[in-house]
Amino acid sequence: MSISIAIVEDEKNYNNALKKVINYQDDMKVVAQFFDGKDALQNLSDISPDVVMMDIQLQDMLGIEIIEKLRKGLPKTQFIMCTSFEDDEKVFNSLKAGAMGYLVKGESMDKILSSIRDVYNGGAPMSFSIARKVLSHFERKLPEIKGFDELTEREKEVLELLSQGLLYKEIADKKFISIDTVKKHVGNIYRKLHVNNKVEAINKFNHFKN
């Protein structure tokens, strides 16, 4: 069964070149071409293609906006961003919106074709330069969550009980300590995890557990 593909790209020559190369393959077929965002927004849901090759910077809107608006209605469609832009904000906004791939327009057609197959089979293809940005972004993020290692065993126990929904008094009774001691532990937990409230602390705790 061939992979159905829609191309959303306002650069006509590039759009047509993509279509030509894709249709030359035995296992994929272009079912729609769009040259502006408005047209894509109105018609993509009816077509429901397997893969959408999405230009990030269309004349009339951002490709990211289209994904945000259509994502829920197209749960089986995978979006690959095809773009000349490599700035961090556009990369991460695209991935947050639900794009599963991110390719720079200078990529070879072979890379684009293999990325379509990859995303169709559950992968997340990215141009090398984009993958490096994503990795360095997460490396920068890691120090923020190191605080968990600084917690004492008792503080970890208190945090575990907080995450189970227990109140300070219930934690105090369970651990045979005073409420003031519980509050002191909680204050230490917030300081070490760099959080301001219980919800943030529990979210970080769940992140560590996973």
From TrEMBL:
SMART domains reported in the protein's UniProt record: HTH_LUXR (SM00421), REC (SM00448)
Pfam families: GerE, Response_reg
Residue span, HTH luxR-type domain: 144-209
CDD domains listed in its UniProt record: LuxR_C_like (cd06170), REC_NarL-like (cd17535)
UniProt KW keywords: DNA-binding, Phosphoprotein
SUPFAM superfamilies (UniProt xref): C-terminal effector domain of the bipartite response regulators, CheY-like
Modification 4-aspartylphosphate, positions: 55
Sequence intervals crossing the membrane: none
Matching PANTHER family: TWO-COMPONENT RESPONSE REGULATOR (PTHR43214)
Protein name: Response regulator transcription factor
Lineage: Bacteria, Pseudomonadati, Bacteroidota, Flavobacteriia, Flavobacteriales
